[in-house]
């Protein structure tokens, strides 16, 4: 690939098509070998002698955690491409002022045709990384996403300094924010709205085979996200064979789900009687046995039309192979958003007074179900230590954000129970 074909010309940048890290061809003048911020001396602890290899060395540390890897790669890739295309300088020459300019760029990546996928057709659609229509962005970033990008890039620069590749971290000069107020759960469905979502799912059509398959899949997905407290990435990253049963101290047989989640950490999630009943319902709708086999590689959620034939599965398929690919994170997200949108539309039919709750549902995502589950458990006096362990939190400080009480109820109970009685 020539420099012009890759989107760059020797000596200066041209705003053509930015390419993914694995296929980008950077001209020698921009590869960072002589970057202005390169560390000098013999203290380098990585073998990389150019920016792209340095980024790859940084990413190699998280290669075994796909979600983290994809998130880190995305932010490093975006900054590198912006530095090359917009500034015509290597990443290892970026200054503090350049980083501030990049943060402003993230609020509206322009020109959109260069940076945003499907910019001329409403944007937002994702394309495979090898597709010519691939772009680094899908639209402007929210303030929260910009903060996350900045945190990740600060980690990148700090690591490259520690590795002896860069002389300094250009983000280290950023103004330190004042301590933030304690987190407050706003991405939360109060019980009445959550009941409406369940009612909407229960009313979904089942008049065709595909409609029935969609209904069963949605019902099982929302059960898994709410009762199991799973993150959206954990739905695709775990299998039905991770359910297991064991006898407790009282002799009762109890089911559990081993979840490998954030940070590649494992946790044990109680598989309640409701959760196991819904698992059996979903599996039987697919023509499978009611309960999974130990080590079974069937994904927790299957694409429609990819039903495994449980009776024809060989022992090799069941225990060692992965006969069915799980739904992607984007596909699971789409199912959840579409369901919430349908529930919102149904709610609006009840009258204009429901607009606020309908708008709330339209903005909800899969993670809202995790927040809602934690909040409902806390409201129902479930020990916070149990919520912490179920959700895989590192500490009770994180779990305590689920101590959500409806504001009106909080006011009423304070008024009723906290008195001076003179």
UniProtKB/TrEMBL annotation:
Residue ranges of every copy of the Tyr recombinase domain listed in the record: 184-415
Keyword RNA-binding: no
InterPro entries with a match to the protein in the record: CB, DNA_brk_join_enz, Integrase-like_cat_sf, Integrase_catalytic, Integrase_recombinase_N, Tyrosine_recombinase_XerCD
Main location per the UniProt record: cytoplasm
PROSITE patterns recorded: CB, TYR_RECOMBINASE
Tagged with keyword Cytoplasm: yes
Residue stretches making up the Core-binding (CB) domain: 49-161
Pfam families recorded: Phage_integrase
Gene3D superfamilies: 1.10.150.130, Intergrase catalytic core
Places the protein is found: Cytoplasm
Keywords linked to the UniProt accession: Cell cycle, Cell division, Chromosome partition, Cytoplasm, DNA integration, DNA recombination, DNA-binding
Name of the featured protein: Tyrosine-type recombinase/integrase
Organism: Paraburkholderia sabiae
